[in-house]
Amino acid sequence: MQVVSASRLTDGSVVYLDSRGDWIESLACARIFDSEPDVQAGLEQAKAAIAASKIIDAFAVPVAQSADGLHAISLRNAIRELGPTVAFKTSPAAAARR
Amino acid sequence: MALYRNGTFAADSWQRLDAAQELPAEGHVLLSLAEWQKLAPIKRESNVAFGVLLEPGETAEAIAADLSRLSLVAITFPKFTDGRGYSTARILRDRYKFAGELRAVGDILFDQIQLYERCGFDALEITDPVTLGLLEAGRKPVMTHFYQPGEGAEVRDSSSPWRGRAATSATA
Amino acid sequence: MYRYDNFDATFVAERVAQFKDQVARRLAGELTEDQFRPLRLMNGVYLQLHAYMLRVAIPYGTLSPRQLRKLAHIARHYDKGYGHFTTRQNIQFNWPALADCPAILSELANVEMHAIQTSGNCVRNVTADQFAGAAADEIEDPRPYCELLRQWSSLNPEFSFLPRKFKIAIAGAPHDRAAVKVHDIGYQIVRNADGEIGFAAYVGGGLGRSPFVAHKIRDFVPKADLLNYTAAILRVYNLEGRRDNKFKARIKILVHEKGAEAMRDAVEAEFARSRDPDLVLTPEIIDRFKSYFALPDLPSRPVPAQNFEGRRAQDADFAHFASQNVVAHKVPGYGVVSISLKPIGGIPGDVTAEQMEAVADLAETYAHSEVRVAHEQNLVLPHVALDDLPALYDRLKDSNLATPNIGLVTDIISCPGLDYCSLATARSIPIAQRISERFGHNGRAAEIGELHINISGCINACGHHHVAHIGILGLEKKGVETYQITVGGAADETCALGEVLGPGFSSESVVDAVEAIVETYLKVRKSRDEDFLSTYRRVGAAPFKEVLYERA
Prior knowledge:
The structure holds three protein chains of three kinds.
Chain A: E1 2-8, E2 14-17, E3 23-24, H1 36-51, E4 55-66, E5 69-72, H2 75-82, H3 92-97
Antiparallel strand pairs in A: 1-2, 1-4, 2-3, 4-5
Chain B: E1 2-5, E2 8-10, E3 14-16, E4 26-32, H1 33-38, H2 41-44, E5 47-54, H3 61-64, E6 70-77, H4 84-95, E7 101-106, H5 113-118, E8 123-126, H6 129-136, E9 145-146, E10 154-156, E11 164-166, H7 167-171
Parallel strand pairs in B: 3-4, 4-5, 5-6, 6-7, 7-8
Antiparallel strand pairs in B: 1-2, 1-8, 9-11, 10-11
Chain C: H1 6-27, H2 33-41, E1 45-47, E2 52-56, E3 62-63, H3 65-78, E4 82-85, E5 91-93, H4 101-110, E6 127-128, H5 143-153, E7 168-171, E8 185-191, E9 197-203, E10 215-222, H6 226-240, H7 251-258, H8 260-274, H9 283-292, H10 306-314, H11 316-325, E11 326-328, E12 334-339, E13 350-352, H12 353-366, E14 371-373, E15 379-385, H13 389-398, E16 413-414, H14 429-439, H15 444-448, E17 453-456, E18 470-477, E19 480-487, E20 499-500, E21 505-506, H16 510-524, H17 532-539, H18 542-550
Parallel strand pairs in C: 6-7, 7-8, 16-17, 17-18
Antiparallel strand pairs in C: 1-2, 2-5, 3-14, 4-5, 4-13, 8-9, 9-10, 11-12, 12-15, 14-15, 18-19, 19-20, 19-21
């Protein structure tokens, strides 16, 4: 099982391809590709989005179903999905704004 | 492809000759370094204006002794990120006082135009459509203040000897 | 500190306008990512795991309170309220939007700051000793020369597309606090036999996957020739450095493959042929640049400092802070105060917007409005009257900035690692946090004494693990983080690369392994006066290998 991920051009956010062809922030709602040809088709869609200056750096992310839902398997992709594993200190004003 | 010379598009009179082609009796002929080095001395004295195209790794030193016979030196940038040609150009201009046309060839993009000019290139062969579009629309690079001596139309700034300004901005 | 004149201000404003246009063209699809990437990198904009990252230049680590407040504002307004100080004396913001970067750069320009050449294959921020201009052991302040190099290398048309990035550092004292021997060019300020001051030139040092200690290629470069000599080195590198393999493209590989002697000959030949009169530094120019960095007018203070001595006698915590975080100033009655950004269990180098503002206030009140960034990811107040230290200390404590651990085992250098960085192969920060917790209580770190631990989350070695007394390199093996340990590295004038002890450790066991090394050191040291590095140099790696690998 894989999903296709990329970074959004304007702000660098981690995004995933969904079944409507949109690039969304939730891996749980991403389109799941079960076969290699399907993944290639997903990456072709990504190429079009790259050409249209929507996203950059697309790649396939192996995922698995776990007790709390669908998640990336590798540590790197899991950190991309869930954010830093360390609790960085943020100031209240900035936290409220984001 | 278009030739952008001294800030404006120009016709290109130079003909690239490969090994198999016969040297014409006159005109502007651009040769590879190898072809130039093979050329018999007598042929170098013909009515032809010669240019040499340097590929990455080919040095200014290789043509230093021949520069009085050359009207053009073209330097290839295989990728815009390969910056060897900038040093080659400066050596030709500063050390060997080459006064002929210095032409950048290859992956020449809008955002590096000023770097080429400031290293002594007066002509750019451009194929990138976006770069061509910007230049055709009259766009010019925006930097007018420079922290180091450069070639071309720059005037030294009074604040420090290594600082310069684009000549147009200084008079503005 | 250096103040922009109209020329500098116009230059930076033009650069911001240029980048704004480049971003607009990128967003409009007129530039491909391949075309845009080098442009954004040369303006400090990376793409990391979660977002873009903006690295702002802090030339030679010198900041004013006004600039620090602006950084706080940027953290709060465009980011998540914090920043991260780096081993290049710069600051990184981890969450800016690309579309906001031109506005951020424009705000920075208002306080004479920029992000020019904080990345890219060009000359990066020229770094210096963080105690420059204040340290008692200094021959001369390196910052005027750093500033001259900064100007000359900014958007240098010949050297904007080098084979790879290029890092220069200058140390002003015999005790090298700028790690000059692991730089592409390291200049050590020296005095020659005639009493003239100039630079010993080291070339080809660097860390990364092939670490090298630099070779000295000249004993003495006169001040007048600093720019021309640097230009000669860069020209040889630009023409001859490898471009066929990114991992072999640094000047250290050229020096290694060509040989230091041949490199010296090539540089000397180029220097002799290409000396540009416009780049010769006259005494007038040097004096002008020195005047920017003149020591502030420090009022005479009583020695001994009564206030300071009194508090030290009564308050053991204060005394500990003073002995650990304060070093001698060249002016009696003053000290150089380091502000540790390594709270126990914290993220090395991270500072909140509120802390930045607190430091800005303290710098104005107690430190003649100067702040420095150390390459060890700490801040420094370089000119503090010792009698003001008690008040300063209390206010630092209020902002959780009084950790008394400079140079100790908990003062860990760490790259962002896999928590942020797209190149990383393992996490660095959690390891640093756990080591800090392990040693950070009950006076344990002080008992251990000076011990530098550096952690890198990949082979690129941004965490300088090769030159740590104990270095940790995070790698990935079959999908699992693994940590390789080195011992015996040093970044100072005794520069040495650490020795790999053996196979790596899991994330779970690496802190225990570090503790076993430290415990072994405590057993074998002759006395408290023999620090970890001296002990290693006497006994070698064997006792540490034994405790890690032979104890069943």
